[in-house]
Amino acid sequence: MDTRTIMIFPEFHNMDVIHFYRKQYDPLSALVKPHITLVFPFQSNMSNDRLNKHLSDKLMNIKPFEITLNGVTKQPGELGNYLFLNIIEGKEHIHEIHELLYSGLLKEYKKGYPYTPHLTLGNLDSLEKLEMAYLDASKCNETFKAVINTISVEVIGASGESMIISEHRLPE
Fold first, then answer.
1. What residue ranges carry the coiled-coil annotation (predicted)?
2. What's the per-residue H, E or C state across 2-30?
3. For residues 55 and 134, is the Cβ–Cβ distance under 8 A?
4. Of the candidates 90, 115, 89, 92, which has an alpha carbon nearest to the alpha carbon of residue 102?
5. Whole-prediction pTM value?
6. Closest CA to 169 of 14, 55, 17, 91
7. Main-chain dihedrals φ then ψ at residue 78, nearest 5 degrees
8. What is the pLDDT of residues 90-106, one digit of tens each?
9. Contacts of 120 (CB under 8 A, 6+ apart)
10. Confidence of residue 79 (pLDDT cuts 50, 70, 90)
Protein backbone atom coordinates (compact mmCIF):
# COMPACT_ATOMS: atom_id res chain seq x y z
CA MET A 1 0.00 0.00 0.00
CA ASP A 2 1.48 3.33 -1.08
CA THR A 3 1.80 6.35 1.18
CA ARG A 4 1.16 9.42 -0.94
CA THR A 5 0.84 13.13 -0.37
CA ILE A 6 -0.04 16.11 -2.56
CA MET A 7 2.13 19.20 -2.43
CA ILE A 8 3.28 22.42 -4.00
CA PHE A 9 7.03 22.78 -4.58
CA PRO A 10 7.49 26.55 -4.92
CA GLU A 11 10.61 27.89 -6.62
CA PHE A 12 11.93 31.10 -5.09
CA HIS A 13 14.93 33.08 -6.36
CA ASN A 14 16.31 32.99 -2.79
CA MET A 15 15.86 29.24 -2.12
CA ASP A 16 19.32 29.12 -0.54
CA VAL A 17 17.92 30.88 2.55
CA ILE A 18 15.20 28.25 2.98
CA HIS A 19 17.75 25.46 2.44
CA PHE A 20 20.01 27.05 5.08
CA TYR A 21 17.32 26.87 7.78
CA ARG A 22 15.90 23.51 6.73
CA LYS A 23 19.34 21.90 6.76
CA GLN A 24 19.71 22.97 10.39
CA TYR A 25 16.20 22.33 11.67
CA ASP A 26 14.29 19.91 9.42
CA PRO A 27 15.21 16.21 9.59
CA LEU A 28 13.45 15.71 6.23
CA SER A 29 15.49 18.36 4.39
CA ALA A 30 17.61 15.78 2.55
CA LEU A 31 14.56 13.66 1.63
CA VAL A 32 12.03 16.17 0.28
CA LYS A 33 12.38 19.61 -1.31
CA PRO A 34 10.82 22.67 0.39
CA HIS A 35 7.07 22.28 -0.01
CA ILE A 36 3.58 23.32 0.97
CA THR A 37 1.44 20.31 1.81
CA LEU A 38 -2.07 20.28 0.37
CA VAL A 39 -3.06 16.70 1.26
CA PHE A 40 -1.19 15.14 4.16
CA PRO A 41 0.33 11.66 3.83
CA PHE A 42 -2.29 8.95 3.39
CA GLN A 43 -2.08 5.22 2.72
CA SER A 44 -4.23 3.81 -0.04
CA ASN A 45 -4.39 1.10 -2.69
CA MET A 46 -6.07 3.62 -5.01
CA SER A 47 -4.57 3.57 -8.50
CA ASN A 48 -2.45 6.50 -9.63
CA ASP A 49 -4.78 6.92 -12.61
CA ARG A 50 -7.79 7.32 -10.31
CA LEU A 51 -5.93 9.81 -8.10
CA ASN A 52 -4.73 11.76 -11.15
CA LYS A 53 -8.28 11.95 -12.51
CA HIS A 54 -9.43 13.32 -9.13
CA LEU A 55 -6.77 16.04 -9.29
CA SER A 56 -7.55 16.91 -12.89
CA ASP A 57 -11.26 17.23 -12.09
CA LYS A 58 -10.75 19.27 -8.91
CA LEU A 59 -8.06 21.58 -10.34
CA MET A 60 -9.66 22.31 -13.74
CA ASN A 61 -10.81 25.81 -12.70
CA ILE A 62 -7.78 26.78 -10.59
CA LYS A 63 -5.52 29.26 -12.36
CA PRO A 64 -1.83 29.89 -11.54
CA PHE A 65 -1.45 32.29 -8.62
CA GLU A 66 1.23 34.16 -6.72
CA ILE A 67 2.35 33.49 -3.19
CA THR A 68 4.46 35.55 -0.80
CA LEU A 69 6.09 34.13 2.30
CA ASN A 70 7.67 36.08 5.12
CA GLY A 71 8.23 35.64 8.85
CA VAL A 72 8.17 32.51 10.96
CA THR A 73 5.78 30.90 13.42
CA LYS A 74 6.44 28.18 15.97
CA GLN A 75 3.88 25.41 16.30
CA PRO A 76 4.50 23.04 19.20
CA GLY A 77 2.15 20.10 19.50
CA GLU A 78 1.62 16.39 19.79
CA LEU A 79 2.68 15.83 16.17
CA GLY A 80 5.99 17.68 16.56
CA ASN A 81 7.61 21.01 17.37
CA TYR A 82 7.36 22.78 14.04
CA LEU A 83 8.92 25.95 12.70
CA PHE A 84 6.86 27.38 9.84
CA LEU A 85 7.62 29.97 7.18
CA ASN A 86 4.41 32.00 6.96
CA ILE A 87 2.42 32.43 3.77
CA ILE A 88 1.20 36.01 3.78
CA GLU A 89 -0.24 36.23 0.25
CA GLY A 90 -1.93 33.42 -1.66
CA LYS A 91 -2.97 31.37 1.34
CA GLU A 92 -6.65 31.66 0.42
CA HIS A 93 -5.87 29.95 -2.93
CA ILE A 94 -3.90 27.22 -1.17
CA HIS A 95 -6.69 26.71 1.35
CA GLU A 96 -9.24 26.46 -1.49
CA ILE A 97 -7.15 23.80 -3.26
CA HIS A 98 -6.73 21.91 0.04
CA GLU A 99 -10.51 21.82 0.50
CA LEU A 100 -11.18 20.84 -3.13
CA LEU A 101 -8.69 17.96 -3.01
CA TYR A 102 -10.10 16.64 0.26
CA SER A 103 -13.61 16.49 -1.20
CA GLY A 104 -14.95 13.41 -2.93
CA LEU A 105 -12.34 10.70 -3.44
CA LEU A 106 -9.99 11.86 -0.66
CA LYS A 107 -12.61 12.92 1.91
CA GLU A 108 -12.00 9.87 4.11
CA TYR A 109 -8.32 10.85 4.55
CA LYS A 110 -8.97 14.31 5.98
CA LYS A 111 -7.91 14.69 9.59
CA GLY A 112 -9.78 16.91 12.02
CA TYR A 113 -6.90 19.38 12.40
CA PRO A 114 -7.37 22.98 11.28
CA TYR A 115 -5.38 23.67 8.12
CA THR A 116 -2.97 26.60 8.04
CA PRO A 117 -0.98 26.81 4.79
CA HIS A 118 2.76 27.05 5.49
CA LEU A 119 6.21 25.89 4.42
CA THR A 120 7.98 23.86 7.11
CA LEU A 121 11.45 25.09 8.05
CA GLY A 122 11.95 22.68 10.93
CA ASN A 123 10.69 19.98 13.24
CA LEU A 124 12.61 19.98 16.49
CA ASP A 125 12.72 17.26 19.13
CA SER A 126 12.18 19.58 22.10
CA LEU A 127 10.44 22.83 22.99
CA GLU A 128 13.80 24.34 23.97
CA LYS A 129 15.28 23.58 20.54
CA LEU A 130 12.14 24.94 18.88
CA GLU A 131 12.47 28.19 20.82
CA MET A 132 16.15 28.53 19.83
CA ALA A 133 15.34 27.79 16.17
CA TYR A 134 12.47 30.28 16.25
CA LEU A 135 14.71 33.03 17.67
CA ASP A 136 17.34 32.28 15.02
CA ALA A 137 14.95 32.16 12.05
CA SER A 138 13.05 35.24 13.27
CA LYS A 139 16.12 37.30 12.39
CA CYS A 140 15.57 36.52 8.71
CA ASN A 141 13.88 39.43 6.93
CA GLU A 142 13.75 37.75 3.52
CA THR A 143 10.56 37.75 1.48
CA PHE A 144 9.90 34.79 -0.80
CA LYS A 145 7.73 35.16 -3.91
CA ALA A 146 6.71 32.56 -6.49
CA VAL A 147 4.03 31.80 -9.04
CA ILE A 148 2.30 28.51 -8.35
CA ASN A 149 1.36 26.67 -11.53
CA THR A 150 1.97 23.01 -10.64
CA ILE A 151 0.55 20.62 -8.05
CA SER A 152 2.59 17.45 -7.42
CA VAL A 153 1.74 13.99 -6.13
CA GLU A 154 4.48 12.07 -4.38
CA VAL A 155 4.96 8.61 -2.99
CA ILE A 156 6.91 8.50 0.24
CA GLY A 157 9.58 5.82 -0.06
CA ALA A 158 10.62 3.29 2.59
CA SER A 159 13.35 5.64 3.88
CA GLY A 160 11.07 8.70 3.83
CA GLU A 161 12.34 9.95 0.47
CA SER A 162 10.04 11.84 -1.86
CA MET A 163 9.33 10.32 -5.28
CA ILE A 164 7.20 12.51 -7.55
CA ILE A 165 4.73 10.33 -9.46
CA SER A 166 2.72 13.03 -11.22
CA GLU A 167 2.54 16.76 -11.74
CA HIS A 168 -0.57 18.72 -12.61
CA ARG A 169 -0.16 22.06 -14.39
CA LEU A 170 -2.82 24.59 -13.52
CA PRO A 171 -4.65 25.81 -16.65
CA GLU A 172 -3.63 29.28 -17.83
1. none
2. EEEEEEECCCCCCHHHHHHHHHHHCCCCC
3. no
4. 115
5. 0.93
6. 55
7. -65, -20
8. 999 999 999 999 998 99
9. 22, 26, 28, 35, 82, 83, 84, 85
10. confident
